[in-house]
Amino acid sequence: MPVLCSSCSEKRAVLKRPKTGHSLCKACFFWAFEEEVHQTIVAAKLFRSGETVGIAASGGKDSTVLAHVMKLLNERHGYGLELMLISVDEGITGYRDDSLETVKRNQQQYELPLKIVSYEELYGWTMDAIVKQVGLKNNCTFCGVFRRQALDRGAIMLKVDKICTGHNADDVAETVLMNILRGDIARLRRCTAISTASEGDGVVPRCKPLKYAYEKEIVLYAYFKKLDYFSTECIYSPNAYRGYARTFLKDLESIRPSSIMDIIHSGENLSVREGVKMPVQGTCSRCGYISSQALCKSCVLLEGLNRGLPKLGIGKHHRLHGKILSQQPLTEHEQRKLKSVDF
Ligand code: SF4
Ligand code: ZN
Prior knowledge:
Layout: E1 15-16, E2 23-24, H1 26-43, E3 52-56, H2 61-76, E4 82-89, H3 96-110, E5 114-118, H4 119-123, H5 127-134, H6 139-157, E6 162-164, H7 169-182, H8 185-191, E7 195-196, E8 206-207, H9 215-224, H10 240-255, H11 259-269, E9 282-283, E10 290-291, H12 297-306, H13 321-325, H14 332-339
Parallel strand pairs: 3-4, 3-6, 4-5, 6-8
Antiparallel strand pairs: 1-2, 7-8, 9-10
Helix pairs in contact: 2-9, 7-8, 7-10, 7-11
The structure holds iron/sulfur cluster and zinc ion.
Iron/sulfur cluster binds next to helix 6.
Domain Cytoplasmic tRNA 2-thiolation protein 1 C-terminal: 282-312
Subcellular location: Cytoplasm
Main location: cytoplasm
């Protein structure tokens, strides 16, 4: 006997919602998924009418679904937003060049303006060149730090008021777990926030409209809507630590699907005891970007690359910032320590 959709009771159910276990037809699933994102946007007051919003687009499933749903909800509910796509080209041959082709097709399909900012143009280094120098161990640290700043730079060039990213519920839960495992209280407190206010000049406020959307549902949505997305993994993705957190989360989800939401709620309700020392945000004295040290992470990583000392930005070498800023030479011992790529 075919199962009927538990929402409309008319059409045949084609899927079981991973988030709720309900059997739904295609149309009812689309509606439920889209309206939940709408509820998230409304409840957290993510946007104001008249704003220009940049959608961080990588060509992957999350950002493709985000672009599709943002365009649809903007029209359906009259948000009054001007939407644009911003992409970062990390310079990864065989991966990003192909996924950017997907973004370019999305731009045509959704009729949205697109801005691509590249690491090469911003930093003088592609990820291909960085991996050649640092190997495959800490490459994602460079990539993550550079991407954050690159998106801000792209957003400023496009004069957008806000950036929205495709982070989904699984990503947020995974980050909560990782920050707990690392004891990173400052990040733990920030990572569940659905939006961040501008933390200073050059930092554009960000938000995550898909924060409560399960990855499995995003995949189903993209599949049933036949969205055009790129599903290959980055060729430099050894980020083992996140991988373990992800596997752990998926195991938990298979036993109890609500685990994802429960971890997010736990993260949201944690409070930091008074008196715990938190980093104080200032600005980088070289590029002006936010930083809790004399130099921002991006400038230190870049300095390390340019000096052939890749370890400079990995780990805690804050005491060297003054020397870098005043262009003082490092001692032989310091150089030796920073030269090894065996992080
Ligand atoms: Fe960059 Fe690492 Fe992601 Fe690849 S896996 S795009 S190197 S952060
Ligand atoms: Zn800087």
